[in-house]
Amino acid sequence: MKKKLWACMAVVVLVATAIGGCSSPVPSETEQETQKDSLEVWTFYDCNVPGYYYMFAWDDLEKQYNCTLDVKNFSKAEMDTKLLTALATGELPDIFYLGDGEYVQEFIEAKVCLPVQSYISDLSYEDGYVTEYSNNVYVVPCTPKKYYVTYYNVSLLEEIGLSIPTSYEELQKMNRQIQRYNKLNDTDYVLFECGDKEGESFDRLLNEMVQYLDEDAWQQYMTDNAKDYSVLKEAATKLTELGEDGAFNKNVVQKGHAQAVTDFIGGEAVMMVDSSDIAYHLIQNMGEDGFEMVNFLDNDKLICETPDQTPGLCVNANSDNSGLAAQICAAYAKRMNELNVTQQGYLNMLTDDYEQTGTTPKQIDFLKQLVQDDTHVTGYSSIQIDKDNESLWKANNKKYLLGDITLKEYMKTAKDCINP
């Protein structure tokens, strides 16, 4: 009888051992504490943010929210391909940056953007920074609005003996002076630094030339069923004249934006029409006294490059940690704004008051003086062309810039893009 009892107990022990060996071990309290949520973040920063803290800040947020952030930064030129491919394949990260609000409507319709208004309710943004779509907010603004400005290389102005032009005639004269200097000194400087691979550089120039000729023209084109496009035609003609006189670099449509900025810093061109968000990159590489930042010719108004949507972060609605991601985005935006204002003297997106510790560069002072007065800013430009026609508009600009189409052909397509 004892043998049978011991045999039964042995079976029980063996079964218990087998069951215990197959079950998962219960994590200790220490192990549970070390398990963290992991989120993937995509940013598209190259020379378009005012400081390196835009990258380093994620480290502090990891500690603050006890999580792991896998941050991947790409160049701005890669944004279209990366985001649209990820949208199509369902592989969007938990958090992703939209430079100018590109594709927000498309992403909303695909139901991949999380409404974030409840997460940013404590952030008191200035008017015009937060955009609603059907009463929801999908982008957390984290960089100030951008404006078209004109940069001049001070070293080249002094070397060639040039003055900043305020009229088209003076611009033509400057170009002739550069060409004459090149012949006498065996140099190859150009008037405009232009990298139009992404279709943006020539578009900026065209916008500014139209604005110079008639400051109300773009508003008419974008709000009315315009029939008179004479200002746009004149602007395109003037840029062609400058191009025929050697105002642009020869590889204008092969060169990307990042390379164009690098070449301007390297002293290959006298001037560059670009976005205000690269000002700090130029300061870091040329020094505050190495360049001037002004309006184009005698234009009184700055063209806002982001009138409808401020650059910011989106949260993937399908993320397992969407709530945490939204909290992190809000904290990131608040911290970036604080550092922008206190360290750089940059534009304040919030109504919060800060004590500035750093000095404000003269270029940023110029920008702040203009944007604080709404009469010196316009939100009308080709940026507002319907998204479906944007690619056609840029392709048409490139063909015209290369001389592949006539002015008549250019204007026909341009009109169709503006008023389809």
Describe this structure in words.
By secondary structure, the chain is an alpha/beta fold. It is built from 16 helices and 13 strands. The strands form four sheets. Strands 2-1-3-12-6 form a five-stranded mixed β-sheet, with helices on one face. α3 links the parallel β1 and β2. α3 crosses α13, α8 packs across α10 and α15 runs antiparallel to α16. The longest helix has 23 residues. The chain starts with a helix and ends with a helix.
- Which radius of gyration do the C-alpha atoms yield? 27 Å
The count of β-strands is 13
**Share in β-strands:** 5-15%
Q: What oligomeric assembly is this protein in? A: single chain
Distance between the termini: 98 Å
Order of helices and strands: HHEHEHEHEEEEHHEHHHHEHEEEHHEHH
Structural class: alpha/beta
Strand order of the largest sheet: 2-1-3-12-6
**Helical content band:** 40-55%
The total of helices stands at 16
Largest sheet: 5 strands, mixed
Segments where pLDDT lies below 50 for 5+ residues? Answer: 1-24
Q: What overall geometry do the principal axes of the alpha carbons give?
A: globular
Give the rounded overall mean pLDDT: 90
Task: Write a short abstract of this structure.
This protein has helices spanning 2-22, 29-34, 53-64, 79-89, 104-109, 154-160, 168-185, 201-213, 217-223, 230-244, 257-265, 279-286, 322-344, 362-371, 387-402, 407-418, and strands spanning 37-43, 67-73, 95-98, 132-133, 136-137, 140-141, 148-153, 190-192, 269-275, 291-294, 302-303, 312-315, 377-378.
